[in-house]
Amino acid sequence: MKKKQILALGFHRLSVAIVARGLSPILPIYAIYLDANSQFVGYYMSFLQIVLIAGNFLGGWLGDKLGNKKILLIASTVASIPAIWLMGKVNNIWQLAILTSIVWCFYLGIGINLNITLVGLLSLPHERGKVFGIFSVVAALAGLLAGLTFGPIADLWGYSTMFKFVCLFSCFFALSELFLEDKPLSNTSLIEKKTEQSTKKWSKEFLLMLIASLMMGLVSFGGNLGISLAMNQQGFLLRHISFVMGFSASISCFFSPLSGWMSDKFGHKTILISCYLIGALGVFSLASAVSLWQFYLAACGISFLSYVALAPSSALVTNLVAPDFLGRAISLFRTALRVGGIIGFTFTGSLIEKMGISLIFVLEGFILIVAVCLLIPQQYSIKKF
After folding, report:
1. Could you list the residue range(s) of the whole structural domain that residue 276 is in?
2. Neighbour-count burial for 19-56, b at 16+ CB within 10 Å, e otherwise
3. What is the DSSP letter of 376?
4. Can you give the CATH number for the domain in which 268 is found?
5. What end-to-end distance do the CA atoms of the chain give, in Å?
6. Cα dihedral angle (315, 316, 322, 326), rounded to 10 degrees?
7. What span, in angstroms and rounded, lies between the C-alpha atoms of 271 and 275?
8. Nearest to residue 282, comparing CAs of 296, 269, 270?
9. What pLDDT, in 10s, does the model give residues 158-182?
10. d(CA 164, CA 136)
């Protein structure tokens, strides 16, 4: 990859990830501020995941069909920035749902899908884990920056000011899209390098990984929602919730590139299983969290699902499918995560008041253990090229 392309993709990823990582823990509280109950918040967050899935599929299909990614990325940004601004002006949950659906479909769905596809296609097979690890740091850094700014701004000056800040921040970093290379993927050098995997579209390993990814998405999204709702029930301020999420993202800044590098050395699946097990410990600890330090500990464990596992996961997907099918494969992988997110949001939001926090997260921890069992039988060896 050219340095110019790396920087352009990196800043674009930072722009989109700041919106995703910063708003995700605050939107449930904003919805409650607009008189929504916990169950409706779960439905609302699940609806956003459905919209994100639609954006992922749209981005994957258009990305494989179109050679020019630049126009598509710019169009998705132009459609999303005004919606971010208007989110601070809403009077009810329905207006918020419409505006966030625009941002989640175009900015997060299409934008992230194309970004990940480009990174996978333009990186060499033996360095994919490391490259995806570097880009995972961008997502973690975005979570850290958002965690240190979004919550405090909302506490001090209100939601409207926070969304204005997010809009201006996004506009600045979105300028990197202008520097993306404006040429079709078919002209890139990586596509010309065919391997014995070039004829593979589906495999048992890929399908099992999709199922495990769905379970991981359930626990990851459900756990992050649970942190926001549990801390709100304990009387913590928005800045506390934001700081917890931001701190967990900062931990990932170190472990994300490390997981990518280690996955190149020891196998993508081995490191992925390790991330799942650490995430399970975080979810189990959330079941009994009442103090601030306990929420910090739980969030750090769950961050291995939200951030650290993405590098070996993306590298594994890229190695398991043909290059000309990668855009759709990334769509399916991210869709599995989002479908799991829908189930996790609905499961957590609707049952947390009926069953209690402790039982919900014990169940989610065991679901993650089942996901690990799905990955263990089918060992995947990285091909040497």
Report:
1. 3-174+199-375
2. bbbbbbbbbbbbbbebebebebbbbbbbbbbbbbbbbb
3. T
4. 1.20.1250.20
5. 18
6. -60
7. 6
8. 296
9. 898 999 988 888 888 778 777 776 5
10. 26
Task: Examine residue 131 and state whether it is found in any structural domain, yes or no.
Answer: yes
CA pair distance 19, 41, nearest whole angstrom: 19
- Give φ, ψ of 375 to 5 degrees: -80, -30
Cβ neighbours of residue 69 closer than 8 Å, sequence gap 6 or more: 63, 114, 118, 180, 185
CA neighbours within 13 Å on the CB side: how many for 248?
Answer: 31
Place of tokens 């002209």: 187
Query: Are the beta carbons of 290 and 182 closer than 8 angstroms?
Result: no
Give 377: exposed, middle or buried? Use CB within 10 Å, 0-12, 13-18, 19+.
Answer: exposed
Q: Flag residues of the chain having pLDDT under 50.
A: 184-199, 379-385
User: What does DSSP assign to residue 188?
Assistant: S
Residue 265, burial from CB neighbour count under 10 angstroms (0-12, 13-18, 19+):
exposed
Residues in the chain: 385
> Coil, helix or strand for 309?
coil
Distance CA 298, CA 303 (A): 9
pTM: 0.68
How many domains would you assign to the chain? 1
Residue bearing tokens 């990614």: 69
Q: Report if residue 190 sits inside a domain.
A: no
User: Which tokens hold the place of 339?
Assistant: 């479908």
